[in-house]
Design a protein that fits this description.
Helices cover 42% and strands 22% of the residues. It is α+β, with helices and mostly antiparallel strands. It has a single domain, classed as Transcriptional coactivator/pterin dehydratase (Gyrase A, domain 2). Helix 2 runs antiparallel to helix 3. The longest helix has 18 residues.
């Protein structure tokens, strides 16, 4: 499998188990709750550094005490292993910063 192969929800289920991310159509969507706006921005800042490192960038919605990430490999037209890797990295960052899975 190469990094541009499209993955189905069944193919991402094991990797996403225990994370806040869900595979809906052509996207992985995950949200986190934080104590306040500043901590949401800190979470986003840390994720931005990883996204740059991976050269794979999420769509983001930022609000007071909340960050939502939408991951998709636009060049491939769906979810690829690059999205799964980024979702796992985001989960680790969120956990380290004390962010809780959001809805």
């Amino acid at each position: 499998m190469n990094a541009r192969d499209i993955l189905s929800p069944a193919e991402t289920a094991d990797a996403l188990a225990g994370t806040t991310f869900v595979h809906i159509e052509e996207h992985l969507i995950g949200a986190y709750s934080t104590a306040d706006f500043a901590s949401a921005v800190r979470l986003l800042d840390a994720v931005a550094l990883v996204a740059e490192e991976l050269n794979h960038h999420p769509d983001v919605r930022l609000g007071w005490g909340r960050v939502e990430f939408e991951l998709s490999s636009h060049d491939a037209g769906g979810v690829t292993s690059r999205d799964v890797v980024l979702a796992e990295r985001i989960g680790g960052i969120a956990e380290a910063q004390g962010a809780a899975p959001g809805n």
